[in-house]
Design brief:
There is one protein chain. By secondary structure, the chain is of the alpha/beta class. It is 38% helix and 25% strand. The chain has 2 domains: 82 residues, ATPase, nucleotide binding domain (Nucleotidyltransferase, domain 5); 137 residues, ATPase, nucleotide binding domain (Nucleotidyltransferase, domain 5, 2-Layer Sandwich). It contains 7 helices and 13 strands. A 7-stranded mixed β-sheet has the order 7-8-11-10-9-12-13, sandwiched between helices. Strand 2 and strand 3 form a beta hairpin. The longest helix has 28 residues.
């Protein structure tokens, strides 16, 4: 059995795959706060696996302290971790970043996962898939474009929905921590903040889809993921309802599974 780990800014997402069993049907998530509880929760999860793992593949954007805790816990279970790092090319996907190693490993893994879904959308007449835009709404929102030739062209990074709300509450004297649905013409402060956040998120996605359509001469397929998607879904569909929109539960783990 191979364990798959997506270590983000706030959570560790875990899955597994095994030749005789397949992939875990759902993703298990462990919060990084409080950090002192992480090792015990990982041990509990490992002990409950149907088959004890022999290897693990992961990505980590949470820093070295978190990585060391997880590495030690998995070593105790006899399961070393291989960390994915970004490169110029893998599994047929080319990274067009000026310095490919600067691309976040989580984004690189997600693009490798996206590639398999993109190939499934290939156009028979041309033998290539249309351009694909992957918008992931987590602590940060990332919006990346995979071209028809399996080339990662680049993408955006901006604060995720929750981080946008938190920044207003923490960086101003009078604005509250808002939540709730948006409104076309907000008439109170909470609505104004909520609407502004989802409009900013959806507007960034709309921009990249417009850029992709102009660059490639055809409409992209929009793939979405992340815990913030339900908050922005209505606004995104309002702006981009003409596009095919597909939800991916965890493209990072999909990419790690392909690597493994």
């Amino acid at each position: 059995m191979i364990v798959l780990l997506d270590i983000g800014n706030t959570r560790v997402k875990l899955g597994w795959q095994h030749p005789g069993i397949g992939r875990e049907p759902s993703i298990h998530a462990i919060a990084l706060n409080p950090l002192e509880a992480l090792a015990a929760q990982l041990r509990t999860w490992l002990a409950a696996l149907p088959v004890q793992p022999t290897a693990a593949h992961g990505v980590n954007v949470a820093g070295t302290v978190v990585a060391k805790i997880i590495e030690q816990t998995f070593l105790e279970a006899g399961c070393p971790i291989q960390w994915l790092v970004s490169g110029a090319k893998a599994l047929g996907v080319r990274n067009a970043y000026n310095r490919p190693e600067q691309l976040g490993a989580d984004r690189w893994a997600a693009l490798l996962g996206l590639a398999q879904y993109a190939q499934a959308a290939a156009l028979p007449a041309v033998g290539q898939h249309p351009p694909c835009v992957l918008a992931t709404f987590g602590t940060a929102t990332t919006i990346d474009t995979l071209g028809p030739g399996q080339v990662f062209e680049g993408g955006l990074i901006l604060p995720g929905p929750a981080l946008m709300r938190q920044s207003l509450a923490q960086g101003t004297a009078n604005l509250p921590l808002a939540s709730g649905a948006g409104n076309d013409f907000p008439k109170d402060t909470l609505q104004a903040i909520s609407t502004g956040v989802v409009a900013a998120q959806a507007g960034a996605v709309w921009r990249q889809c417009q850029v992709a359509e102009k660059h490639y001469g055809c409409a992209p397929v929009l793939f979405v993921s992340g815990g913030g998607w339900p908050e922005v879904e209505a606004e995104v569909r309002k702006l981009l309802g003409h596009l095919k929109i597909r939800f991916l539960a965890n493209p990072v783990l999909d990419g790690l599974a392909r690597v493994a």
